Amino acid sequence: MYEPKTKRFQPLKESQDPRAKCSGLCDVSVNARQKVLYTACRRGARWWQDVYRIGKNNQLIWLWSSEKK
Length: 69
What we know:
Blueprint: E1 2-3, E2 8-9, E3 29-31, E4 36-43, E5 46-54, E6 60-67
Antiparallel strand pairs: 1-2, 3-4, 4-5, 5-6
């Protein structure tokens, strides 16, 4: 995660929320207007998408998961 104040990259801390369907960040996309981050993965026979907001200290805050169609 780029920090404009320090002009350096800082590690983005993964969410430890057990409700998240994906582990790790794969197929990432960003919605800057809504300030959310999407990640997708395959779990079993289904594709899932997790939605996160970036909180303080670059911690990902899980918002919801949905089946990706």
